[in-house]
Structures are given as C-alpha cells and as structure tokens.
Amino acid sequence: MNSYPTEMLVQLAPIMFVAGLDLPPTLAAAPVVPSLANKDPSSPPTPPPKVQDPFTLLIFRLREVLLSQSKSAVWSPDRTKVFQVVLVDKAVGFPPRKSVPPDDSSYANAHSPLSPMTPSSPVFPDGLIAPIWIKKHMTYLPSVFVLFLRMYEAPHTTTRSPLGQPDSDMERERAEEERKRDADLSAEIAQRKKSTGERGIKLTVVLIASRRMLDDPSLDGRLSFIRKQSNLDSRAALFVLSPVSPSELNDFVSSLQDALYEPAIDYYTSHSKRVRRKRNRHSQAVSSYNPPAALVGATTPRPLRPEGWTVRYEYKMAAFAEFRGEDEVALKHYQDAYATLMIMFGSTAILPPRTKRWAEAKVLADTINVKITKFYLYNNEHALALSHHNSHMRRFADFSRGWGIGEETFEYWSWMARQYRVLAELLEQGARSTLTLPALTPGPRAAGGLPDALGPGGAPLELDAVRMMGLNPSHALQHPGHYYYMAARCTEARRERFLASEGLTTTPGYANEKKVDHLTLALELYTKAYELFKQHSSTASQGRLTLWIAYRIALTYYHSGKFEMAVRFFERIAKTYRREKWSTLLRPLYTTWYACTQKLGDVELSVKLLVEMIACGDVDEPGSCQEDLSAILKSSVPSFVDDVLTVDLVECEPIWDTLVIFWKSEVYVGEEAVFQFTLIAPTNNDISKLPVESITITFSSDYKPITLRHCASESSGPIRMVPVGMVQPADAAGQPLEVAANLRWRASDRVIVSGTVLSDTPVTLSVSSLVVTLKESGWTIKINHDVRATREGAIIPPYWLSSLNPVQFIPVTRDDRSNVVFRHRPHQLSVSFSHQQEALLDEEFPITVEIANSDDRHVDVVVDILLQPAEVDGAVQYIVHNGHRSSGLIKGAECGIIAPGASVRKTFILVASGAAGNRTIDVSVQSNASSTLPTVHRPTGLSMSSSTSSLAANDTNEFLRTLVIPATAPFSVTHDVEYQVSLCPARPLSELSTLGGDSWDGGEVIVMTKLECMAPCGLEVEGLELKRLESNRAKITRSSNEIDGSTFPAEFLTGDQFCNICCVSLASREYDLTEGDAVPGPGEYIVTWRRIHSLGERGPSSTTRLPLPLLRPPQESLIGFMTIPSAAKLHVPVPMHLVIRNRNATRSAIVTVALDQSTVDGFVVAGPRGGRLPIILPGAEEKVTWNLIPVECGMVRVPHVRVMDYRMAPSTNDDGLSGSVDEGVLVQVIDTRFGTWTGDAGSQGQIGQTDKIFIFP
C-alpha cells in the first residue's frame, strides 16, 4: 500500500487536538514545534526519570494514555467512542478557510486554498481531490479542542495573627491574586474559544489542580467566574483534574471522550450538510467560474466538469461519514464517487490518458476501491468485496487497452501487481485483527444427487445444487498468500515486458522503470506468499502449491544470480516431487537446477542431476543428457580417486523398467523356486551410450547377490536370456554369482535373468534391490533402483519367457507374482469324532476325538476345545476334561507326541441343561513338527484334510472342526391342577393364630404330574422323589409316590408315561401378597435315570429336576357355601344352609339373597324368600338357613339361591364418573358336597356344584 497516499487509505476517526501537555525541556521526549509534535503519535513518549512533582507525572501519564487510545491504521473495524488524538501547542493555528484574509474586499467571493477555483491550489483548475485535503482534516483541523491549563493556587501558609485569628490582609491579597490569575486564564481561554468558535470546533478546558484545591470552598466560585469570563459552553466545556492513579486517569480519559464524542459527530455532520448543499448547486447549474484578469491573455485552462465536482463532493461526504463512524453511509458515497469516476474514465475527452489529472484520478479510483472493499469486509460480505475488486481490475484492464497500455506493456502489469498486493495486504491486516476468511470446504452432497436438482424441461438448478457443482476460484475470497502470489506473477510479467521493450521505447515511465529491481520485488512477494501458504495449508494439495511457490522463489534466485540459494530450494522441493512422482514438474526443475550447478562448478552434483534427468527422459532433446553426462565423465575427474558416487533413484523415475516373476507363488521348504527378472529399456529415451559396467541383483533374505558383467561379445539381440543357475544362501561356500552379459541397450531391449532359489526355512522371498554401476575415466557411479517402480505411462504386461527361439511368452495373471513364499509341508493328520446322535439334558455326554498321524514325522499335538454360547434362552452348559470344568474354553489339552502311523484319543464330557437346543463346539487341533523330534522318512504325497494356518517360524499346523450336538429333554412334563375351596369357617381376629400367619385353611390343590419319555433311546428310571421346598404360602401334604414306592427302578422306552399325584395346602387368603398373584410350586420332582445303550449298557447316572407348576387359586373375595344332604325322605324336613364368607382383607360386602320361586316345585320351603344381609366385614361370614320338605321322589332339583354383591358393581355414568347399578355382581355359590375348582384363577363357571338330591319314599 506504500504506492498510494496513506491519508487516502487509513480508517478515519474523529480528530481531537490536545494542548497544554508539554513536558519540561529536561523531560521532553522530542522537541515540540509551535503547531504539532514531530514525534509519531503511534509510539508513546519515553518514560521520564523519577520525579517528585505530581503534576509533571500527571502530564506524562496523560500523554501516554491519550496517544495510546487510537492509532492510524488501514484496518480498524471497531466503532467505539475513541478519537484520533494529536498533541499540539497552545498557540496552534488553523488553516485559512479561504485563499484571502477576512479583511480583504474579495473575501466573500473567494474559495478555499484547496479548491479547483483557486489558482494557487494543487488541483487548479480541473483536479478532483488532493491527498492534502484529507491530511488537513486528519492533522490540522480537529473536531474538538481540549486545552489543559494549570489553575493558580496560592502558596500554602500557616502565618496567623498573635491572637490566633486569620490574617485578613493576607486573605484579601490572596483573593485578589487568585482573581487576577483567573482573569488572565479566562482571557487565554476566551481567545482560544474565539478561534475554535469561528470554525465550529468544540472547546473543552481541563483545569489541573491539586487535591487540596478540590476541597477549597472557593473552587465553585472561581470555576463559575472562569466559565462566564471565557464564554464557555454549559455542557462538557470545563473539567477539573487532580493527580490521580493510572486506573482513575484511564476512567477520566474515557469519560472525557464519551462527553465530547457527540459534539465531534455534530461537527462532521455540519460539514457534510455544507458539502451536500454545494453538490446540489453544482448538479443544477454548469460551472460559472471566470478566470482571473491576469490570465485572460493566456491560454484559458479548462475548468472542472460537473462530473468532477460530483466526484469531489461525494468523496468529501464519504470522508465525513467515515469520520462520524457511519460506514454504511460512507460506503454509499464512495460507491457514487466511484461510479462517476468510471464515467469520466470512459471518455478520453474528460480525462486524457497519460496526463497529470489522469494519473491523479487513477490513484483516487484505486484508493476508493480499497475503501469499498474494506467496508464490505467489515460486514463479512466476502463475495461482494471480491466481486468489486475483480470488477475494478477488469474495468481498468479494458480502459488500459484503449489507452494503449495493454497486456504488452510493463505499465499494465505493474498496475495489476499493485492491485493484487493491495488486496493481499488488506486481507493480511484484517486477518491479524477481526477478519475471518470464508471456509471453502464443499458442503455435503444432497441425498437426491445432482441430477435430481434439474426440474422438468431443464429448469435451472437450485442454489444448493449449483454450489455442489463447484466454485470458480476467482469468485472465492482466499487467504492473502494467493494474492501475493498473483502479484508476484504479475511482477514477473512486468519484468518480461520491460526487458522486451528495452531500447524500443522512450516513454517517461521507462526511465523510472529502469530503477525498479523487479527480481527483488518478485522475491519479496513470493516469500510472503510462501509463508502465508504454509500457515494456511491444511491439505496435501495446498502443501503442493506451497512447493510450487518455493519453485518460483528458486527460479527468481536463479535469475538474480543467487545460485546457491536456488540450489537450496531445489533440493527441498525435489524431495517431495520425487516421492510423489511429479515427473512433469521435475523436468523443468532439473533443467534449472543443472544450470545452477554449472554456474557453481559442482561436478558431482551435475553428474547426479544428469542421471536423474536421464531417468525422467529427454522430451525436448532426446539423448542430450546422455551426451552431457559422457562429456563430463570424460573431461573431469572425481574429487576423490577411489570414491564411488551414489545416485539414489528409489524415489525417482527409474531408467529401466523392471519385472520380477516367480513361477509359483508358494513352494515347500527344500524345493526350488524358478524366477525371471527382466530389465526393459525405455522406448522414448536413448540410453545406448550409457557406460554400464555391471548390474547387481539382491534378494530380500540372506542370499548372495547376482552380478551381471558387461561383455560386448555376448548376444545383443532385442531379447536376451541370461541364465544364472541356483542362487546360493549367504553362508554357503563359494563366490557370488557373476555372469557375463551385453549391458548396452537400444530402445525397448530386454534382458531376462532366469534362475532358481532354494530355502531351508519358511520365508517370503523377493528381489529387494537393483544397483547399476557406471564406469568412465576414473568415475564410478552406482545407481540404486526401485525394482517395483515403472516409468510414467509405461504398462509392462507380466509375461514369462517360455521360448527364446522362437520368442514365446506365457501371461502370468496372479497378483503375487513378484514374490514367493516358502512354507513347511503340511502335516498329514486326520481328525475324527465319535459320540451318540443326540445329547440328553442333565446327562454327562462323552465326545471322543481321535487324531491319526499319516505323516512321516513325529508331531506334538495339542487340542483346544471351545464351547460356543447357546442360541436359546435359559440354556446352561459346560464341558469337562480331566477334571477341569469350563463353560467356555479348555485350552492346551496335550495329546503328546504322535509317531508316524499312530493315533491318540481324547474324551471330553459335555453337560447341557436348562433349555433344549443345539450345542456348538469348536475343536482346534494344533500340531508341531519340531526339528528336535525324531523323523521317519516316508514317501510324501499325502493330502491334508484341512487348511493350514498362516506361516510361522516353527513347523506348525492347525486343524479346525466344528461339532453341532442336538440336546433334547429326556422327559416331557404336563400338570393337571384342581383347586378345592376350604370349607372351614374363618377364624376370628381375636385368635393369635390368625395374626401369626400359620393358618393353612386357604384350600387345597391336587396336582397330577404326567411324565413322558422323550429320549431317542431307552431310559432306566432309578427313582422319583418329590422334594419339598420351604414356602409360607403353600406346602405339600402328601404324594402318591410316598404311598407306593415299588414302581422304580423301571425301564422306559420312547413314548412311555408315568404319573404322580400330590396334594398341596394353601395358606390363608390374608397372607396373599397381591390379589391374583401366582404361588410358586412348593416342591420339585427329582428323577434319577440312566441312558440305555444299544448293547444294553447303562450310561452314567443323571439327575433331572422338574419343579411343580405355579399355583393360581381362585380369587373370589366373596363366596357362598351351600350345605345340603345328598339324600332325604319324602315329607321329612331337611335343612339347607347358605354361608356367605367375605375373604377380602380390607373391603366390606353388601349382599342380598333371593330364592328363585321357579325352582321350588319339588319342595315346600320354609325360610326367607329374599332380602339384604347385614354388612359382612372383612374376614367375616353370614349364614342363612332354609327348611325343605320334599313333596316328590327321585332326583329332585333343590331351589336355586341367587346371591348378589353390590359393592363390586362398578359402572360409568354419562358424566364419566364411576357409580353403581342395581343389578350388582353375582356371587358364586359352591356345593360343599363337591367344592372343587378346575383350572386357574382366571377361569369362570367351572365350580364343581350340583343342585339335586335323591328323595326316598
């Protein structure tokens, strides 16, 4: 930005003049001129030495605080109430408003000294705006003037009269002196008030006084006198300051600026209004300026056109808006000024090219462009900022072509470089402050994909779809390094155009251009771009661009003649380019690097570079690098006589394409592996004159290398076969293999090295390195190659040479053709299992593993057994081997060493219980044929039934087998449950046994259990036992197997059944946990049995536990018991009793009883026909009795009694509230002669009841 006036680029802020803070001469940091301090305000004054005067220290601190408030900077987006402070002398004056003094008769018609209408103005007569106008308002015209003055204080004295009263004369003299000093102070302030008032500048006076003066009662009167005498404003015009601490001083300065900020804004607002009025006048009338009489006879200069006045006034209003901190208003005026400037540049009649005003207008346009771009960036409108800057460059590029300074001139590229650099510096300053550069990472792709973004009929894409397609880099704001790079490229183009026009032009700019050091300027720009790219590089692609910039720096150093610096950069860049195979970029780099080494006279480095250049290929001049290398080797000697120069091409492009093929991918230890190693000369690169002396091929393991020596008498055909025999291990006796071969290549020649290799140990073998040795005139050069690399663009099909005459190849299609794996011969073991077809739950199920050795070696065998988790719920399982029990893995079951032809068996036990289902067992048989074991030589050729494991150092194999054992239940169990209601009356609450909970009058349950044999084989049941379990809710009272114990032992086949009946007593209803809760079975059956094998053998004893079912007794809380005799005599009365029992523990019952009249035909009934019983309390009961006189013989139906419970009749009314209905709930009545309930509590209507009795005559 140094190319433009600083005043036209910096961020404008309100100007505050501060006077009266001059340091004593002995403490002043810099001399102060009558107008301004020469010292840069951006740097604080030098701290004074220690002083005892508090006022001097206060002045120094004030200067420091004020100068640190705001500093002139191009980038300053913060809009706070802070002034640009300028320290001035008390007697500082202001620039004149007009070019003639006020007492001149022509003062009314005169103009500003900087106006285009003033002949002495730098912009007379058609200039637009001068930088001195901005400087005037930044340096010479403040918006507020702060004057610091020392308030007079009489010397402190303690002299009193002899009587102890104050001396009146002394007090009077003191008051007169203070009044005199205050009058002088007021006159000084009034004089300054007059000068500032004429310019509309706010004057504020700060009186410095001691802390003692602040407590003086006369202070208010003195301040009122000073204010009136000096005509100061009533608001923010007079302050008093005493020596305070630094923190309090900062608060004072902040409050002072807050108070004066509004007057400063008013000052610039009044200027804007004045300029707007002038603009409106000029827009309505053409300029009426008449030149002075002294100039009538001369050539009349052309005055400024209306467009120029518009630019001038718009620029002034933009500047005043910027002073006020109104960036949006300033942006609008800058845009209007810029648009009018573009109209002026569009006409050469308004702004003729290559004139002074044309150059000034270009500078003005460039600076306005910077302002507009900066304001856009303040608002984070990156796209608008970049768009305006690009538009500015594009417009002036078009203008320049019309002015005759297009792309073929150095002026054009100089201006382009300047624009890129200004943008880069602006972004760099912003990035160090508050600017956040946009992230250019692409967003996530839409789920519908890009084709779905097209509407029917080829409608335009949506915005998100357009963004997914990509972004033009010139339309995206990037980091400053990019624009520094563009500026550097433009500078290089500028230099090229300058050198091309040297001696062909005599323009005035050519003389200035000759003074420019283009290379230094480009180097500076490239260096800045390089540092910024390194700072912002987050991906590999950006890192490569950083290397490209480093390459441009190296080229600049080369053109500058700094060859050593260029070589340093080339060395660092080439490392990455080699590793990432950027051959296209390496070729020009090598060319320039080689030119640098020639200038430096480094022969060894030149030889290395030539070898690498030969590897990359001579695209432009085939064979030139080979000739240069031959010339250097013949005309020079190495620095050390016996030294070997090594050139590493492992990461570079290879000179020869190589191909390694092993005929087999795997061979057994002790067998030979056949290989062919092919070297292919490039088709488009001449290497026929390379002085190849030998080629050394090295394998990956410890093997002796193969060396091919050059012999011109050997075959030189396009395809040469070089047999080398067997490659020997490194510890074998004898010399390494050396074979003679013709090592001169024409284009596409092939040399095929064929041989065999043998290994006694397992190993993966491949060719690890290739070293080519060149010898010429004392030079020995060793070139290291990567045997897996191929030249760029080369496709080498993997062919195996099967015949040399005629030449025939066999294609090899497998991927692992470049290496061979030596493995141990697999062990010949057979693994088999023997067990029953199915396992039964709860039995010990034996499984036998038999391992037979069919190999000719002794093997040490270990077995691992893994029991997989069952896939059914509730399954329990484990395996047992040699007393070790595990629910998962049994590891390392040793089988010992198995001799050839022998076998071994291992038996393990599977126990499955719980749920039936398949049980999965994985068996791993691991064998090891160590060299320490005895070996029996037998013919080989036996096959292995399972795959071997991965290659290990020892001769080990692993055989995997999976067993799936079905596990079924030996018995199926069904339970028939019958509930019998207790007829015993409820015990009264007064009995202790009722509260003790040991009552078992809750009824009885008859459980009949049926067991059916489900095993696929016969079972011998040795015993059946019903084991009682502790329970406070149910207990077993008797069981049928306890009565008859002679049933077992017995044999059962599949489908055979046997049963057992038990009786269970239930606890009282009061002790149920919840209504309807199931009662766990109070016992379990223990069945002891054995499996019967096919030969009648019995298996081990097994035990199966079968629990009783859950008991769910009936849950009726209110129940009736009907007691009647089973038989009666005709006309003899018999009683019929009905007992209503409330079994609920918390709820009373409201019960009605009604006798069905339609069922009394066979009896004469004496008793109540219906009615409501008393409320039945919890646990209580009520009894109703009828006398029946039979009048018929035979089976006669007794009268039916209907019992209703009204407390258990819920209903829902229309309003949603619960209520009761008249019907109630029918209560079950049980005949005590039967009193049984079949099924669970949820069943209804299954009460064992009859309503008939037999009547005898």
Summary keywords:
flat; alpha+beta; about 1250 residues; five-stranded parallel β-sheet; Immunoglobulin-like; eight-stranded mixed β-sheet; 22 helices
Category by helix and strand content: alpha+beta
Span from first to last CA? 138 Å
Question: Low-confidence runs (pLDDT<50, min 5 residues)?
Answer: 29-45, 286-299, 446-457, 935-952, 1216-1221, 1241-1249
Alpha-carbon Rg, integer = 57 Å
Pfam family, one: Gryzun
Biased composition (Basic and acidic residues): 169-184
Domain Trafficking protein particle complex subunit: 357-499, 512-614
Domain Gryzun putative trafficking through Golgi: 660-871
Can I get a quick summary?
The protein has 1257 residues and is of the alpha+beta class. It has 22 helices and 52 strands.
Overview of the molecule:
This is Trafficking protein particle complex subunit 11. It comes from Pisolithus microcarpus 441. Residues 169-184 have a biased composition (Basic and acidic residues). The chain is an alpha+beta fold and 1257 residues long. Among the domains are: 538-601; 614-823, no CATH class; 829-931 and 954-968, Immunoglobulins (Immunoglobulin-like), CATH 2.60.40; 971-986 and 998-1107, Immunoglobulin-like (Sandwich); 1118-1209 and 1222-1237, Sandwich (Immunoglobulin-like), CATH 2.60.40.10. The protein contains 22 helices and 52 strands. The strands form 12 sheets. Strands 6, 8, 10, 11, 13, 15, 16 and 19 form an 8-stranded mixed sheet that branches. Strands 2-1-3-4-5 form a 5-stranded parallel sheet, with helices on both faces. Strand 15 (763-776) and strand 16 form a beta hairpin. Helix 8 (327-345) runs antiparallel to helix 9 (356-378) and helix 18 runs antiparallel to helix 19 (603-616). The protein is flat and about 165 Å long. Residues 29-45, 286-299, 446-457, 935-952, 1216-1221 and 1241-1249 have low confidence and may be disordered.
